[in-house]
Design goal:
By secondary structure, the protein is of the alpha/beta class. It has helices at 32-40, 75-85, 103-112, 140-148, 154-159, 180-190, and strands spanning 6-9, 47-51, 62-65, 90-95, 119-124, 127-136, 163-167.
Length: 191
């Protein structure tokens, strides 16, 4: 099992989905969040769920509730909360809506990480995957500045940091469930 903690980000607005995607049934579980927590708990020794309000979940997990901000659905608040809650030097960040990123992809990213990096990020021919990455504590102040400036563009943050990119040719594991048709496709893939 991987020693680095894993934080599942499940505090997004889900505006394109039209409903909270973390609460959608998936893979034999009542919710996508529970599915992710269950499968990632087999890869990581410690798994946390970053969210706005843990009371929406009806399963046992270690939750990190986001700091209260004006930017209600910004991932930056989740990162700041994770750094404050966890006392470690780095953690693995993954979005609740990417259920096909498997142990192989995760281990490749973690193994590629270097101590002098600010972040180690998956990259496919489609682009970077900032929500499938290792983030170091050196990023904590940068996230705080971004939140203060109401800037929530992770791509910009990564361009201006010491970021390592880990190349993946296959884009399929990085499928995000942003729209209803992507959710339906993911349900078909799970059969």
């Amino acid at each position: 099992m991987l020693e680095i903690p894993c934080v599942i980000f499940a505090g997004g607005k889900s505006s394109r989905m039209g409903e909270d995607k973390a609460l959608l049934p998936f893979g034999g579980f009542n919710t996508l969040a529970e599915f992710q927590f269950s499968r990632l708990s087999k890869i990581f020794k410690n798994v946390y769920i970053s969210c706005k309000d843990s009371s929406k979940f009806n399963f046992e997990a270690d939750f990190i509730e986001d700091i209260k901000t004006d930017s209600l659905y910004a991932p930056t608040a989740g990162f700041i909360s994770a750094f404050r809650h966890l006392k470690c030097e780095k953690f693995f960040a993954i979005s609740v809506d990417s259920p096909f990123i498997a142990k192989d992809e995760i281990e490749k990213i973690v193994a590629s990480d270097k101590t002098d990096a600010d972040a180690t990020v998956a990259k496919t021919p489609h682009g970077i995957e900032p929500m499938c990455s290792v983030y170091h504590r050196s990023m904590e102040k940068k996230f705080a500045s971004m939140l203060k400036e109401n800037n929530h563009k992770l791509g910009f943050l990564l361009k201006t940091s010491n970021t390592l990119y880990v190349e993946f040719e296959d884009e399929k594991p990085f499928l995000n469930l942003n729209h209803p048709h992507e959710y339906q496709e993911a349900l078909r893939l799970m059969v």
